[in-house]
Design brief:
By secondary structure, the protein is mostly helical. Helices cover 68% and strands 2% of the residues. It has 17 helices and 2 strands. Strands 1-2 form a two-stranded antiparallel ribbon. Helix 9 crosses helix 11, helix 10 runs antiparallel to helix 11 and helix 13 packs antiparallel against helix 16. The termini are close together. This is Microcin C ABC transporter permease YejB. Keywords: Cell inner membrane, Cell membrane, Membrane, Transmembrane, Transmembrane helix, Transport. It is a multi-pass membrane protein.
Amino acid sequence: MGAYILRRLLLIIPTLFGIMLINFALVQFVPGGPVEQAIARAQGGGDVFGGFTGAGNDAGDTEISGGNENYVGARGLPPEFIAELEREFGFDKPPVERFFNMMWNYMRLDFGESYFRSIGVIDLVKEKLPVSITLGLWSTLIAYLVSIPLGIRKAIKDGSGFDTWTSGMIIIAYAIPGFLFAIMLLVLFAGGSYWQIFPLRGLTSDNFEQLSLLGKVADYFWHITLPVLASTISAFATLTLLTKNSFLDEIKKHYVMTARAKGLSERKVLYGHVFRNAMLIVIAGFPAVFIGVFFGGSLIIETIFSLDGLGRLGFEAAVARDYPIVFGTLFIFGLIGLLVGILSDLMYVLVDPRIDFERREG
């Protein structure tokens, strides 16, 4: 197993390099880079994209060339100012040099500072982590706590009325978009049109620091109830049906019939013999599911509930062309995702020691 883990760890280097290279190359063709963003802010426009609509190309507008680019909307700004912006953002160097400088810094865990926020990328990620941890952790735990017992029950009652109507409810829940369900929750329970039971926005109340320990815990759960429900609704379907199908496959195997023939109770057969084998794929996939929810956190859910998490951070950085945040978070999350893939394999071995990845590769 040690040799397999070592090979997987070594594969992380070219894989991560390829991810960064492809994204860096694609970004070179995207209009409205950091320099144009800075020009728009300097002129009080706030956003560069108005310059691409054609509205600003009147007789008084000029295009000032900086390096190999023409910066649309650089009205009346001296070329020296444009050149200084390029030096500040590192665009006075060729793309290949910029890419390898960036990767060298990342290998030394130097992710730089945001172009427009005057804060380090790592500090910014730490600032947004509580929201993403909240949505990712609680959504995953609730999905597992509900879906596994429900899936087992559906497998036992396969073909019954219970199995039929629960499958219908699961499919309906899966079909409802998360953002639509979030709006429904706000309308019903956050003072939209009916009851004002839960707060409308934020992760904690304004007076959170003045509350007692129990008060802080209650306030925290009071605030996260609706966004966690909204982000969890679609996760039930896949996990429940996966659990059900895993149990059905195991129940039909010979060792189950042998255990029943020995006179073991149905409960002992299910939870003493079937459960471990049926839950292999479900339990071992927990790290990947959590990371998927954690890093793929819904931008729309965060926006609806006014939560400032990693989803909004990534979106705002992409819109503002804040490349240190875009590439820094891509490197960090890409590395974590690759490590979680290895962790998932280790979970398989932990749940079922019969699995030997080295023998399979050989």
